[in-house]
Structure formats: C-alpha cells, structure tokens
Task: inverse folding
C-alpha cells in the first residue's frame, strides 16, 4: 500500500480544493503555490494534461508556438508568440513548448503538448492526487463536500477545472451509429466513403480536413454560414489550418458546404439518409451517405453542480460567472481552464475573450490565484507605489508588449489605482469588466488592447475620475508599436484629469 | 428537447419576431449568441463604445442614466439598437435586475440581419417610432 500512502492530499478538509489536471488546473495550482495558498488538487486522470492526452483527434494543436520571435525566449514579451507554454516565475520552467517541439511545424503535435505539460508539472514539482474521481457535490454549512472515489473532501472554496470536452449532439442526430468527436475510426477506414458532417465550426472542419485524403465525398452542413478567422480577425471562425475543405468547396472540388438545417437522419442498411433544408430558401436535399459525424459542440461535465444552484447558459451549458470566475449564483464555487469563458467580460464589438484557449486562461488563472489569495485568504501583498511620470511609459509598454493584453483583448487590463490623496499604485492585471463596473469614487486607469474585427488592434484606455468612467481609444499603429512620442503625448493628455499636471511634463 | 429549442419557443412569443416562421426563428437562434447576467451586472455601459444589440429572453433590467434608474426593460424588450445603428456609445447603462438572459448580435452584424429579415426591420422601426412618440409627448 505504499502507493496509497504516498499519494498527496488524502480526503480531508482543506482551505481550497481544485478539481482537474489539465493546463487550467496546472496553471492555477502553480500560481496558488507561489502565493502560499494551501490547497488540494484532485484529478480522475492518471497523469497531467487533461484533454490534450487524447485530443485534438488528428493529433496537432490549433494554437501556435513560434520558436523564433522578436523577443528572447522566456521573456514576458515572448509569451505573445508562444500560445501553449504555461507561465512560471523561474526561468527553467518558462517557455517549455519550443524546447519539446521538433521544428516540423509551429503548431505543436498533441504528444508534444502533452510532453510540455508533463514537463511543467514535474519541473515545478506540482502535487496532484491522480486517480481520484469527483462524483458528487453537496453543501454543509460553510463547506462544500465533494464525494470522490477516494472519499469525501471538504472545503469552503472549490475550483472546478474540468474542461468543456464532452461531445454534445442535438436530438435529430441521436441515431444509432452517428459518431461524435472522439469516436472516429482511424482515418484510413473512411477510404472511399461518403461522409456527412453536421456542424461547421472548427471541430467539423478539423474532421473534414483530416478525412479529405480518404473520403469519396464530404458534406458539411449547419444552419448558419461558416465564418473564417482570417475574416473576423479574431479566433471566432474556422482557423486557417482547417480551411482546405472550404477551398475545395469554393473551387468545386467535390466537398459540399451547405447552410441548411438537418431535418431528419435515418439509418438505411449500412448507411444513412440525411434530409436537409436550406436556411436561405427552404430547398430540401437528401443525401445518401456511409457515415454521419456530429461536430455540433461540447458541454462541460458539471455533474450535479446545476442542482446545487450553479446557473449555466447556452448550448455548451457553461456556468455563468463573475469577472473573477466565481459562479454567479453559488458563491464559493470558482472555475479555471476553458470553462472560464463563462465569464464573458465586455465583449466589445461582439468579440469574445480567448478564455477558452490556453493562451487566454493561463493569465486568468494567475489573476484568479491572486484574487483568491487576497479576498479569501487575507493575503495583503505590498503594491508598488508609482511616480506620476512613470505611468504613461508603463501603460504604453504594456500595450506594446504585455502578453495578457495581447491575448485577452478588452478582457484583461493593466490597472493603475489613484487614491483620493493622489497616491498612485500599480494594481497589476485585472479583468476589465471588474475595473469598469466596480464603481465608487476611486480613481484609476486601465489600459487594454482592443480589436474591432476590422482594424489592427489599438490601445483602449479607461479613466475613472470623480466617479465617472471615460473611454479613450487610440489609433492603431502599422507595426503595433505604441511607445512613440505621439502616443506618449496623447496618453498624457488623456490622463491629465486623473494624474494632474505631472504626466504632460514627464513626456520626453 | 434540445438545449436551445426553448429559445425558439420564447422568441415565438415576442412581437419583434412575430412575423418569422419557425425555421426562420431556428436560424435566428443560430445567428445570435446568448449571454446571461446576474443582479447588478452592466450589459451596456454609458459612454463606452463597441456595444451590441440585445433582446431580453428572460428577466428584467434597469435603464440607468448617471447612476439614476429611469425605466425598466423586460422579456421581449430589446436595447442597444441605437448605438449599433448610429455607431455611437450608449447614453445609459443597462443593468441586470436579478438573473437576465439575453440574445445578442454584434453591431457589425445587425445591418445584414435586418436587411435579411425586413419584417423584423419593420417591427423594429415601429418600436423606434413609439419611443420617439413617447419622448415627444413627454417634452410637449
């Protein structure tokens, strides 16, 4: 029984319990440890990595890591180019991904991603109780009680980092043999088959791309038109790596892409008959195919949390969350990893955050750890006092190189607090929605990068003075460099009301 | 019932979408996103750009100008259309009263949606006419 006694975090009461061992949980537990917050981590998996131990099904990531960039590997600014490494304070555990990639692609393979996460977990000495499955949840007094395969865990605060990786399909596709993401056969077994894929988001196009060399015919259908990330200039839409089926369709190569609802799916001997109805003119088409694949989305395995009162929304049943990723309806329950996309932020121009991806939620995790430490465990970190002449250069440096702002546009902001007596404090990275909505008479400045779907990203500055919030949008720069004298002068002018006369004089 | 079938049922009862067929409503649900807010959340923020068009599915919200509540909105009401159509920041906060569930369409997609659904555009126009009439009566 050596193994059992050696496993960390036996069932007991802890100040905080984290559930999961994917990148979201790894980043959070690392950040909590650095802040000295005592907590337990449990996971049903046998090793770190979460869904990246299995998926993407065609074994290559959708997020890139550029081995060579304009900034030194391991520097903060380099993180803008490395979407996959987790964040560490010590140099040895920073920018792990370019070290484990073989150089054949700047999209890491799935095994490379897995190796990177394992290297982070072992290199930072993370403690996780593996093989411990969360089964149910209840509230007793101040504590949540998690029933697990190993026994009961109690804690006043729980963070669930359990992903959104449970395939979901609508009832019209609830027909025997209809496959879902994760249930596909090896690609070569689709040789010379006619394949109908329901869904035109990235998972549908990923499957279509993988089967292009094998399938006789591929049909992709869903009611709304496919959008492409190169058109939206955001991660909304099909990523360029998966656009080949779209080009095949555009050049009449044999792929069919339909804006149509799926009215009926019938099993017919060895195949299926699929009836569709055009979204534009109601025209109905019937397809005789060998395989039907549902690429219609994923849900989060929240188990009994909705019964506990956790409100969810949308098809993916994502929990509604506060700006600090706490359940909007059950206080004390938090979320990490891709579920953080349920804290939607300001969605300026309708553009969502990148909290669904590693490059977004790794920063959220660090902010959440600091929030938990300060708000729930009484940590009072010393905040850096600043001189007024330091403010403009810091904010413009953040806009030009701050990875949190680059990856989480109009979502995370660098915040400067200004006291009633004029004292200036660096408040670090915070959710923009929290800054915008906390109200009160506190003065402050927040800078973000904003995207509008048309132009290059540009700095957006929010100034709170005398209880009023004002927005100041700056111009884009073709080289994305916002530190020039014209930006300094403009920002100094915008801040003069909250900082007084000093900034204008400080600009060189 | 599929997760979003309930949204189609709710929309069918709203005057804004009264002229749409069930397939059109199903398509609309695919086109719009969905957001949920809780008590005190700001949906629109007075003076801040980059807003969207919202239709309340469930719950209610306050129209708040300079921190003073001026009116309320409920299921079937919509807001944000003036900012979207004119490209200007909202002149009021919209603040959730309790849990508020909305459909949302980014400003840059509103024009093509309305042109593609002229019946909705007409209903929207009627709504704007009513607002102008109310304002005119209030001023006179």
Result:
């Amino acid at each position: 029984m050596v193994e059992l006694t050696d496993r960390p975090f036996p069932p007991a009461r802890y100040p905080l319990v984290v559930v999961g061992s994917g990148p979201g949980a790894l980043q959070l537990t690392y950040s909590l440890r650095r802040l000295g917050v005592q907590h337990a981590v449990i996971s049903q998996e046998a090793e770190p990595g979460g869904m990246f131990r299995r998926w993407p099904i065609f074994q290559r990531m959708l997020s890139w890591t550029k081995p060579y960039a304009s900034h030194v590997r391991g520097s903060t600014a380099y993180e803008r180019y490395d979407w996959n490494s987790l964040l560490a304070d010590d140099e040895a555990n920073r920018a792990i991904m370019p070290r484990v990639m073989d150089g054949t692609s700047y999209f890491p393979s799935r095994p490379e991603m897995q190796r990177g996460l394992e290297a982070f977990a072992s290199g930072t000495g993370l403690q996780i109780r593996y093989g411990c499955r969360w089964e149910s949840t209840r509230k007793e007094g101040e504590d949540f009680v998690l029933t697990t395969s190993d026994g009961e865990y109690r804690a006043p605060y729980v963070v669930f980092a359990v992903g959104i990786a449970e395939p979901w399909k609508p009832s019209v596709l609830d027909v025997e043999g209809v496959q879902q993401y994760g249930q596909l056969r090896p690609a070569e077994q689709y040789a010379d088959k006619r394949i109908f894929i329901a869904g035109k988001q990235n998972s549908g196009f990923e499957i279509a791309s993988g089967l292009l060399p094998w399938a006789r015919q591929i049909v992709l259908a869903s009611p709304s038109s496919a959008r492409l990330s190169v058109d939206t200039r955001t991660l909304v839409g099909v990523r360029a790596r998966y656009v080949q089926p779209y080009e095949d369709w555009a050049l009449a190569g044999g792929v069919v892409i339909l804006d149509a609802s799926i009215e009926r799916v019938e099993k017919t001997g060895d195949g299926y008959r699929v009836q569709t109805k055009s979204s534009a003119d109601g025209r109905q088409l019937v397809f005789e195919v060998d395989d039907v694949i549902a690429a219609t989305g994923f849900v989060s395995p929240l188990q009994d949390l909705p019964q506990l009162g956790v409100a969810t929304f949308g098809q993916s049943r994502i929990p509604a969350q506060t700006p600090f990723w706490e359940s909007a309806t059950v206080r004390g329950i938090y979320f990490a990893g891709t579920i953080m996309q349920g804290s939607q932020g300001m969605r300026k121009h309708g553009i969502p955050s990148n909290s669904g991806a590693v490059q977004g939620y790794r920063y959220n995790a660090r902010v959440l750890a600091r929030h938990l430490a300060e708000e729930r465990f009484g940590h009072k970190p010393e905040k850096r006092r600043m001189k007024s002449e330091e403010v403009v250069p810091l904010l413009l440096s953040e806009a030009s190189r701050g990875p949190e702002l680059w990856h989480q546009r109009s979502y995370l902001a660098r915040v400067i607090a200004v006291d009633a007596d004029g004292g200036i404090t660096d408040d670090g990275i915070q959710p923009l929605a929290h800054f915008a909505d906390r109200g009160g008479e506190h003065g402050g400045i927040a800078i973000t990068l904003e995207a509008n779907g048309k132009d290059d990203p540009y700095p957006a500055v929010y100034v709170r003075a005398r209880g009023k919030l004002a927005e100041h949008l700056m111009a884009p720069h073709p080289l994305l460099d916002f530190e020039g004298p014209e930006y300094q002068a403009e920002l100094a002018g915008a801040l003069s009301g909250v900082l007084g006369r000093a900034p204008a004089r400080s600009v060189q | 019932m599929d997760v979003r079938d309930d949204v189609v049922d709710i929309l069918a009862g709203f005057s804004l979408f009264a002229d749409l067929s069930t397939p059109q409503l199903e398509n609309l649900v695919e086109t719009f996103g969905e957001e949920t807010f809780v008590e005190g959340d700001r949906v629109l923020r007075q003076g801040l750009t980059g807003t969207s068009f919202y239709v309340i599915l469930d719950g209610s919200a306050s129209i708040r100008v300079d921190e003073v509540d001026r009116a309320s909105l409920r299921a079937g009401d919509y807001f944000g259309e003036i900012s979207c159509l004119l490209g200007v920041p909202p002149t009021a906060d919209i603040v959730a009263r309790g849990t508020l569930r909305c459909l949302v369409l980014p400003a840059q997609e509103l024009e093509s949606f309305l042109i593609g659904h002229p019946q909705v555009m007409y209903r929207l126009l009627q709504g704007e006419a009513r607002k102008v009439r109310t304002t005119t009566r209030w001023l006179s």
